[in-house]
From TrEMBL:
CDD domains: Pat_hypo_Ecoli_Z1214_like (cd07209). Residues 8-221 form the PNPLA domain. Keywords: Hydrolase, Lipid degradation, Lipid metabolism. This is Patatin-like phospholipase family protein. GO terms for biological process: lipid catabolic process. A motif (DGA/G) lies at residues 208-210. The keyword Transcription regulation does not apply. The active site is at 46 (nucleophile), 208 (proton acceptor). GO terms for molecular function: hydrolase activity. It comes from Thalassolituus pacificus. A motif (GXSXG) lies at residues 44-48.
């Protein structure tokens, strides 16, 4: 049986990405015992990029990689991601306010709600970037992509490190550039605009990869994926909600949450729907006709796993874990997660919330064990 190159798509979503760790942990439990990496190609965005690169750095031993990733998330606290002390938050707020009112004092002043220097220090310590090339050379990994958004060019840029046969690509508003993945790429990919500071890579400043990411699945396909697993963080995906009655003017926290949902969730759901539609179309065209007409189209097997319950509601249950300084920065709203527009679920890097998300991901993936086994059927073939 031919083993198709399997791509893993890890979407962004701040603290929501803890859910992905639970799903990956369950996949390791379901697959045959061994140390191999079941994902040839990994494409990550924002916090999903952090998970992806951490996993890629342990591609030679997937079991240890999963344990390492879980250990990181299970011991998270908000102050490991951004400054939560009153002075740190106040200083960021002051710079942001000054920039909005009178402009920046200096050309290189950062403008953001929060200071995520603690995250940079943590990633520098726990992610083994030098291991990635070794995994590629050994064949344990075909490619890893970290997706960012260029603030000057307006392009979605996929920085990738992979097999020598992979070429750069360029499409409308999206490009792929061969790079050696570094800490700056991760910090740029997770730089949520106005919340975390943008990062300069070469000649341009970059922000969170979810911004203007029109086709989240495409980097993995460009890197050679023949089937794709998507681990989303939307929560009860594709389920239409009743339109609620507004009782008051939306708070800044609610509006920010709405914008984050639009950036992190909507494009992934749209692209997955588009791929399913293309698959249905391709399946109706006989292979002989496709060959005769020179149509370079093929169906891409897809498995999508999303949270079975609302992550906003889950975040609300852990609202008491939010740092007081952050609560002040959000306008005194300890829980701005109502009506699916919560910023809390993106910023609540607390141990309790992350553990709940990991447990939910593990449970959701185990309940779909048959689908996962079918998706990885070639891995079970003797």
């Amino acid at each position: 049986m031919d083993v198709k190159k399997t791509g893993l798509i890890l979407s962004g979503g701040g603290a929501r990405a803890a859910y992905q760790v639970g799903v990956l942990k369950a996949i390791h439990k379901i697959l045959p015992k061994g140390h191999y990496n079941p994902f040839d190609i990994i494409s990550g965005t924002s916090a999903g990029a952090i998970n992806g690169v951490a996993l890629a750095s342990y591609a030679d031993n997937y079991r240890i990689g999963i344990k390492h990733l879980e250990r990181i998330w299970m011991h998270f606290s908000c102050d490991q991601i951004y400054r939560t002390d009153f002075w740190g938050v106040s200083a960021s707020l002051a710079r942001l306010t000054r920039s909005l009112v009178i402009g920046r004092g200096y050309k290189n002043d950062t403008v953001s709600l929060l200071n995520n220097q603690p995250l940079r220090e943590l990633l520098q310590e726990v992610v083994k970037f030098d291991n990635i090339q070794g995994a590629i050379d050994s064949g344990a990994l075909h490619a890893i992509a970290v997706n960012c958004s260029g603030l000057e060019s307006g392009e979605s840029v996929s920085f990738f490190q992979g097999h020598y046969s992979i070429n750069n690509w360029q499409r409308q508003r999206r490009v792929g550039i061969r790079s050696r993945i570094s800490l700056d790429h991760l910090m740029a990919s997770s730089a949520i605009p106005m919340i975390f500071p943008s990062v300069k890579i070469h000649r341009e400043y970059f922000a969170d990869g979810a911004v203007r990411q029109l086709a989240p699945l495409s980097p993995a396909l460009h890197l050679g994926a023949e089937k794709i697993m998507v681990i989303g963080v939307s929560g009860i995906a594709h389920k239409r909600k009743e339109r609620p009655q507004s009782s008051s003017y939306p708070s800044p926290a609610k509006m920010m949450g709405h914008m984050l949902n639009a950036a992190f969730l909507d494009s992934m759901e749209t692209d997955v729907e588009r791929l399913r539609r293309i698959n249905r179309t391709v399946d109706k065209i006989p292979e002989s006709v496709r060959k005769k007409e020179g149509m370079e189209l093929k169906s891409i097997e897809l498995l999508e796993i999303n949270p079975s319950r609302s992550i906003d509601e889950l975040a609300g249950q852990h609202a008491h874990e939010i740092p007081r300084a952050l609560k002040l920065a959000l306008g005194g709203s300890g829980n701005a997660s109502q009506n699916g527009s919560g910023i809390l679920s993106y910023l609540l890097f607390s141990r309790g919330f992350c553990k709940s998300l990991i447990d939910l991901g593990f449970q959701d993936a185990n309940e779909r064990e048959d689908e996962i086994r079918a998706f990885f059927a070639d891995h079970f073939h003797d």
